Amino acid sequence: MIAEPSSLSIARSNRGILRFKLTTYGVSGHSSNPVNGVNTIYKAVDVINVLRDYGNKIYRDQNYCTSSSITVTMTDGGTAENIIPDKCEIIVDRRMVYGESKEKVEGEILDILENFAKKDEQFNYSYYIT
Hints:
This protein is α+β, with helices and mostly antiparallel strands. The chain contains 2 helices and 6 strands, in the order E-E-H-E-E-E-H-E. The longest helix has 19 residues, at 40-58.
């Protein structure tokens, strides 16, 4: 059984993984007057786009074992169809290659989040490694 996406090629190494939950926080409100709230789904989408740009920078080639990657694999936000959500969670999967450490990668991600928070004063978040 081969459980990795290697196209049945022999792989002499494996990538490491850092998964984390990112929760964005905002202000709940009624959808009839959305300007009174801070929609955390929008905040999550904005930071997802920043993480996607980061992923494009770290991607080297299509070789499974030699390229880093990052992708959002799950989202969860909102409580009702007429309520501006005050919380949205995303799960992010970051694959690491030889030479990358958990500390280095986590530092890069935290820098990305902090820089994003500096540009958007309404962006409030928490970060948890799963």
